[in-house]
Design a protein that fits this description.
The complex is a heterodimer of chains A (198) and B (69). By secondary structure, chain A is an all-alpha fold. Chain A has helices at residues 4-9, 13-36, 39-55, 66-84, 93-101, 109-121, 124-135, 140-147, 151-175, 180-185, 187-197. Chain B has 69 residues and is mainly alpha-helical. Chain B has helices spanning 2-14, 31-44, 50-67. The radius of gyration of chain B is 25 Å and the shape is elongated. The chains are: A mainly alpha (198), B mainly alpha (69). At the A-B interface, α2, α3, α6, α7 and α9 of A face α2 and α3 of B.
Chain lengths: 198, 69
């Protein structure tokens, strides 16, 4: 029988669970923000998800896909909240733009704001796929697991979402004094590369 | 053995000797994906709000009490 000292040395499942939860908080916040476009609401969603996950940790098998499990909880929390509070307008495009443009150190603010604004207009099913896969780097398989759809559906929603984003940005560019598409494919392309490196 | 045969044939198709590292396939630059990644990374780089850290400590403390650790 292991001594209490040995038990203290061995990995404690609850500590391991807490560490995983702590590590994934930034990604959950980014996903939630992408879903609802509202910082406070997104953080509320993440906190609710943390409470639910903690309460359900016995049902989580250590070593399985914690990331997909947590994203699924956040996503479910988002849809539950939206259903319960139909008056809540999750995405506030103007607020999203302000957040992006107001950053003085961000040289891509205007272009990112264009994308954020277009993202806010997408159907949530497409938006969540773009946030999971294109933005967050999640695999198609995991995104399918999180959202409960087939991998083919994940791919088609991403393709439609991307096409719709481009179309919206193109449309806005036609009415804007600055050609956003030209910026995105030219100067911005270089800036984005530099931004990625930095 | 079957798997090895399959791997060998895949290497032959690629024209590379087995065991050599495969160079990363260069993807065409996608400005939309890059912008989405930056939007995502900006939130990722934010520090975790105190509220969340306190919540995690509270959740952990509640269970720790129950465990009489």
């Amino acid at each position: 029988m292991a001594s209490s000292r040995e038990e203290n040395v061995s990995a404690d499942p609850q500590d391991a669970f807490k560490e995983q939860l702590l590590a994934i908080i930034p990604a959950l916040r980014a996903f939630a923000r992408g879903l609802c476009g509202n910082r406070d609401l997104a953080d509320d969603l993440v906190q609710e998800a943390m409470v639910r996950a903690w309460a359900a940790q016995q049902s989580y098998t250590m070593g399985t896909n914690f990331r997909a499990w947590m994203f699924m909880i956040v996503r479910n929390q988002f849809y539950t909240t939206m259903r319960k509070n139909s008056r809540i307008s999750a995405w506030d495009p103007e607020a999203a733009e302000r957040l992006l443009v107001a950053e003085p150190t961000q040289h891509l603010g205007l272009e990112l704001a264009d994308v954020a604004h277009a993202l806010s207009k997408l159907p949530v099913q497409q938006r969540e796929m773009l946030m999971l896969v294109s933005a967050g780097g999640m695999s198609y398989e995991d995104a399918a697991s999180v959202t409960g759809v087939a991998i083919g559906t994940v791919k088609s929603r991403i393709a439609r979402g991307r096409a719709a984003l481009l179309q919206m940005i193109e449309g806005e560019a036609q009415n804007a004094p600055v050609d956003a598409i030209k910026a995105l494919s030219g100067r911005t392309t270089r800036n984005l590369r530099e931004g990625d490196a930095g | 053995m079957g798997a090895q045969t399959e791997l060998s044939s895949m290497d032959k198709k690629d024209g590379r000797s087995s065991g050599s590292p495969r160079p990363a396939k260069e993807q065409p630059f996608d400005p939309i994906a890059a912008a989405l990644k930056q939007i995502h990374e900006r939130v990722m780089s934010e520090s975790i709000p105190d509220d969340m850290l306190k919540l995690l400590a509270k959740l952990d403390g509640r269970n720790a009490d129950g465990d009489s650790r």
